[in-house]
User: Fold this.
Amino acid sequence: MHLTEFWNETLSLIKSSTDASEFQLYFSELTVDYGTENNLTVYVPSTFFRDRLKVKFEAQIKSTLKELTGHDIDINFKVRPKETRTETKKENEPLTEKEVQKPAQNSSDIKATPKKNHVLLNPDYTFSNFIVGGNNEFAYNCALAISKDPGLNYNPLMLYGGVGLGKTHLMQAIGNAIYVNNPKANIIYIPSESFMMEFFASIQNKTQSQFKNKYRNVDALLLDDIHDLENKKETQEELFNTFNALYQARKQLVFTCDRPPQELKDFAGRLLSRLTLGVNADLQIPSWETRFVILKKKAEQKNIKIPDDVLEIIARKITTNVRDLQAAMNQVTAYAEIINSEVTLEIAQNLLKNIFAGPVQQSIPIDLVQKVVAEFYKLSVQDLKGKKRTQAITLPRQVAMYIIREMTEFSTTEVGTEFGGRDHTTVMHAVQKIADKLKTEPSFDAVIQNLQRIVRERASNS
Assistant:
């Protein structure tokens, strides 16, 4: 068995145990040069990729290869020369090319698309353009299943989460996929506010029957931002009746909301029970690996050359949502074009320093961060300030120190004083420990982001 097959099998095993977006990030642009049966060279696109790949996967790659081959394999990671970075795929290239490593496309993406795009749907909102990560994988899989058999499973589907996390993208991807499979399908995508205005207009113009016929005879109703119907009793009643008609006819219903549906206020109980009758899928803030992949794909789609270190700092610092990520990248590239310069790390840092600082940075008190972290870990603020050094307390204490240093301008000395008079070197050590943990544990990044989001929300509401 040639080393090529062993390498392919190694990648398959790693892929089966790794988050989809993380695997795409680290393995989609690798190429391999096979030397002897005991060594190989892995070429990566940049020093950034090389260093990160070695930290996260070198040990796993080597141990898996050893288990498969029965002996150690010497692996040399090298940065691919610039002139060869855009070479086309060679014949019999192993499982290291982009198209192999990306999530498998569904049949609706592969089929020939209709001659015209659906007039109510954004043609860019497809499953193939959606970056899948641990933060949205369940929602993605539900949406994909619905697109293949609308009205049969996961009906209705409720997609919920914060602004700019991909709810509308997934919703319209369902519509586009259904339309590709069946161009004659009657699909309506509409924001809830527009639905309400159209309903009121039908009452005013005495055209309720036309309104009901329009919405109760669709194959798929995609209703965006359902939270906009809070306290809109008449519209809720109409939606309730529309829901029943479509559900009984086994037609697909998809809704989006900016919060869990159970948190909706001034919503008719019987309508709320209908909205949660099927599947509720949460879209969360993506990990930094997923954010990096999103930026890289956006740059590729626009044919923009941006160094990895610039994409990395944007992905690291912009932790709110995908829209803010793209806005930051667009701002950097537009400025570089204006001054006729290549995009550099220095340009990005100077241009986005206010964004990186955060909108409420100066107004965040230390005790607010302490309280948020303590509540999350089910501790008291006094536990964080105290002398105990158990793991159950030390990690939350380090997390609080890290977040304070990331989100405020307090010095390490000032932070240490607020944690029981600890020395500034203790704070520095804590910050470094969390930074190291973030590099090796992608799931922990989601914890930090969630805590930072809570801090920002409470600070802005105080």
User: Anything to note?
Assistant: The CA atoms of residues 335 and 351 lie 8 Å apart.
